[in-house]
Structures are given as C-alpha cells and as structure tokens.
C-alpha cells in the first residue's frame, strides 16, 4: 500500500505544524511520499510565503536585489528551523537562494522557492531524501505538463526510496527554466507524484475536514461531503471551491487513484473521499455541493432567425479567438445566445473591441453586455434523477429576493449554473444552501 500525502500552506505554516505533519506521516507506514506547499498564513492578516516571494520578484525586477519581502521569507524559515532544533545550515541556504533569485530574475523561479525551502526543511525533519521538482516535473514547449516524461522521471527517482519529500507547485519548462503551476498548484504536484508511483491513495491534507457543501467563509460550518465523484469534484473546484486545484484531478483520474481530503488539525476526522465516477455511491442526495465565483461578463446577443443562420456562433467565436479570450459557458435560446466570460479576460479595452467586432461579424438585432455577474453552480449526479430540483432551486433564490440574470444547465445534467449580480452572491449561496442542506 502506498499513500502520497500533500500538505497545504496552513499545515506548513510554522514549526509546530511541521511536527504535526511528522506525526501524521509516522502514524501510517504507507504514507511514503510527502509533497509540501510553502508556509501559508499563521493567523488572519499574516502573509503567505508565496505572496512574499511574488513581491520579492517585483523588487528584483525593479532594483536588481531582494529586499524586505525576502527578509520576511528568510525569517519564516529561520524560525521554523529554530523551533524544530534542526542542525541544517539554513543561513547558507537562504543566502544561496537570494543569489539564485537575483540571478534567475524570473517571477516563477522566485515564487517556487517557498516550496523548495519548505521541502528541504521537511526532508531534514523526516530524515528522508528531498526531490527538487525542477528535475522531475517537466512542461512541454506549449506550456502544458509533459505527463509521460514527468511520471517516468519521478518513478525512476523514487524507485528504491522507501520515503521522500517532493517540493510542490513547480517544475521545469522546455527551455530549462523553472515554471510554476497556477496558484494552489501543489495539489497538482501531489497528484502527479501519486500517479507516478501508482499510489493506492492520494491524501490531501489541508485546514478543513474535507470538502464542504459550500464555502465555509459564506455559510458558517456547512455540512461535510463524505464522498464525491471525480466529475463532481471537477465541477465544484473549477467553479471556485478551491479546496483542491481544479487540475489536480487529471493525473489521478488516468489511474483511478482515489483522493482523500483530510484535516491536518483534526486527523481523526474522516474527511472526503473522491472516487472514480463509476465507483460513486449516490447516497440518495439530490445536490452534492454548491460553489461559485464573482466577476463574470455576459455578452448577450439576440437576432431573429439566428437558429437558421449557419455559422453564427462560429463567427462570434472567431472574434473571441482573435483576442485570445476564453469563455466559460454559452447559454442559448432559439434566437438568443450569450457568452459568459471571466471579466479579467476583457480588461484594457478588449471588451469594447470584442463588442465592436461581434457587431460587425454577425449584425445582431441586439447586443448587450452585463458586467459584475457572479456564477453559482449547484452540482450533483443526483439532480438528474430527481424531479423538481430546478423548481426548488429557483424558488429558493426568488424567496431570497434575488433576480436571476442567467441560467445554464450543463449538458451532463450534473450541474445548474445561475448568474446573479456580484452583490447578491453570498445571499444566493446561503439561500441555496438552506434549501438543500438545512435538514441534513
Ligand atoms: P491549502 O493551503 O491546504 O492548499 P487552501 O486554502 O488551498 O488550503 O484550501 C482550503 C480552503 O478552501 C479552506 O480553508 C476553505 O476556506 C476554502 N474552501 C472554499 N470552498 C470550500 C469548500 N466547499 N469546502 C471546504 N473548503 C472550502
Ligand atoms: N504556495 C503556492 C500558492 O500559494 C502553491 C500551493 O500552496 O499550492 O499558491
Ligand atoms: Mg490549496
């Protein structure tokens, strides 16, 4: 039995938490490979090491040298090493790292040093080898993970090593430079390591007791979700439930490796088990979870007989492609079509240009744009099996006095997505949660 354990930022925040990690790993001999994040926040208002390193990259870009932000990073690691009473030469490592950040001069390199340093220290504490992810996790020239190569390199490196620590969050691009995943990417590293060693389980240790039915920052102590399917996980994490990075699913899915989300601070809690969709246990619930995100823009088009106009959508999409704008959803009717886009993709005059070019390309009867839209996804395999779920959903939203601006039902019947104004986001999530979870 092999388990790969990834520990998130909060689990790595200080020396005491490093000791918790050691205890968790020691409690189960199958917990053989450990993937670490950079130290996160110790208290609300604290700064994550990764954020300090992005600031360090800006300092180096502007003045050529690391400054206060790096000193804060150094202080975090000094105090962890001191608290743990480790004999390693942390001063030497920190000085070398500062030089390397100045020398490499890249944002990704600077950002990756949080995981690099955290991994070195954890390996020292556990007395196991440390693997610098740069040597094993490889990206192709198009910027995507080169899975086959990375799995092979990792498998080779870990062969014969009963235990090891691997730094999360980064690898190396086709030109030999350090490249990070997007934020929260140590979850992806954990999944890659699990896939590489053919793990029986990928344990993801964080600061909550598993996936909750909605964001705990919106509803106080939401119900826990004991099990989820890969598909539900993908929907929920993509739509904002950032317990697990939305791309962490892919490496493990190829090998049917289940994921268990566990709480470092309450290891006795069961957490959430995420399983292949085929092995999923329905538990007779209509809705599994709710997730959402703010700040979308909806470009709404109306044209009589749109349905008969061949190539209508194609011409609109061509405009988006030209501006490299990706879209999230395309809810459509007989004579209407809307494009839902993350507003961040449309800044700096792009929205205006896109509007103008769509107008020229398809001459709609009406083109309107709504900004400041929040999307809320209600997710669950059970929805397609039960009658009246949509009615309950919209009734609950109406009772909360919220106006629905957009509706999209995914073709998988796994989710219903509603768009409301940003300002109504939290209220809507609470109303939907109350409707489907209050009795559980
Ligand atoms: P880590 O640093 O361990 O990777 P993250 O901060 O990335 O942890 O993810 C855990 C956090 O995700 C929780 O502290 C919680 O605030 C937030 N979160 C958002 N939505 C959910 C949800 N549906 N269930 C559980 N946690 C959620
Ligand atoms: N440290 C990185 C971040 O803060 C990656 C991670 O924690 O997964 O985004
Ligand atoms: Mg995370």
Compact overview of the structure:
The chain is an alpha/beta fold.
Chain-wise SSE layout:
Layout: E1 3-7, H1 15-26, E2 31-36, H2 49-63, H3 68-84, H4 90-104, H5 107-126, E3 130-131, H6 147-158, E4 164-167, E5 170-172, E6 178-180, H7 186-197, E7 201-206, E8 227-229, H8 230-238, H9 249-253, E9 259-263, E10 272-275, E11 289-302, H10 312-322, E12 336-342, H11 350-362, E13 366-379, H12 389-399, E14 406-409, E15 415-421, H13 425-437
Parallel strand pairs: 1-2, 1-7, 2-4, 3-4, 7-9, 8-10
Antiparallel strand pairs: 5-6, 9-10, 11-12, 11-13, 13-15, 14-15
The structure holds adenosine-5'-diphosphate, aspartic acid and magnesium ion.
Adenosine-5'-diphosphate (ADP) binds near residues 8, 206, 217, 241 and 242.
Which descriptors apply to this entry?
single chain; 440 residues; alpha/beta; Carbamate kinase; VC0802-like; 2 domains; five-stranded antiparallel beta sheet; 13 helices; binds adenosine-5'-diphosphate; binds aspartic acid
């Amino acid at each position: 039995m092999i388990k790969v354990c990834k520990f998130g930022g909060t689990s790595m925040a200080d020396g005491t938490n490093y000791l918790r990690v050691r205890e968790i790993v020691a409690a189960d001999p199958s917990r053989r490979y450990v993937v670490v994040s950079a130290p996160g926040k110790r208290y609300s208002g604290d700064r994550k090491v990764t954020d300090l390193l992005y600031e360090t990259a800006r300092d180096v870009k502007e003045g050529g040298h690391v400054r206060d932000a790096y000193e804060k990073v150094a202080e975090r690691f000094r105090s962890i090493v001191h608290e743990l009473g480790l004999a390693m030469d942390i001063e030497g490592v920190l000085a070398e790292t500062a030089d390397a950040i100045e020398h490499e001069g890249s944002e990704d390199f600077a950002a990756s040093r949080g995981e690099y340093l955290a991994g070195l220290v954890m390996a020292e504490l556990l007395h196991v080898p440390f693997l610098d992810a740069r040597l094993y996790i490889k990206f192709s020239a198009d910027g995507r993970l080169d899975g086959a190569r990375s799995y092979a390199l990792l498998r080779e490196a870990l062969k014969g090593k009963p235990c090891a620590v691997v730094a999360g969050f980064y690898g190396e691009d086709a030109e030999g430079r350090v490249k990070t995943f997007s934020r929260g990417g140590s979850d992806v590293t954990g999944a890659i390591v699990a896939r590489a060693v053919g793990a029986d389980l990928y344990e993801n240790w964080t600061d909550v007791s598993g996936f909750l039915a909605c964001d705990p920052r919106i509803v106080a102590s939401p119900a826990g979700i004991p099990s989820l399917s890969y598909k539900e996980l993908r929907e929920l994490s993509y739509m904002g439930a950032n317990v697990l990075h939305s791309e962490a699913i892919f490496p493990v899915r190829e090998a049917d490796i289940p994921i268990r989300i566990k709480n470092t601070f309450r290891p006795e809690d069961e957490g959430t088990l995420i399983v292949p969709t085929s092995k999923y246990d329905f538990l007779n619930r209509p809705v599994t979870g709710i997730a959402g995100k703010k700040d979308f823009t909806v470009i709404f088009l109306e044209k009589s007989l749109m349905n008969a106009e061949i190539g209508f959508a194609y011409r609109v999409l061509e405009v988006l492609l030209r501006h490299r704008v990706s879209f999230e959803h395309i809810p459509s009717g007989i004579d209407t079509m809307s494009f839902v886009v993350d507003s961040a993709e449309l800044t700096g005059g792009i929205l205006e240009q896109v509007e103008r070019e769509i107008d020229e390309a398809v001459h709609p009867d009406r083109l309107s744009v709504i900004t400041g839209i929040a999307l809320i996804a209600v997710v669950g395999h059970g929805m397609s099996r039960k009658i009246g779920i949509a009615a309950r959903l919209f009734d609950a939203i109406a009772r909360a006095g919220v106006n629905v601006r957009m509706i999209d039902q995914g073709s998988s019947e796994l989710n219903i997505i509603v768009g409301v104004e940003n300002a109504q986001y939290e209220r809507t999530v609470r109303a939907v949660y109350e409707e489907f979870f209050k009795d559980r």
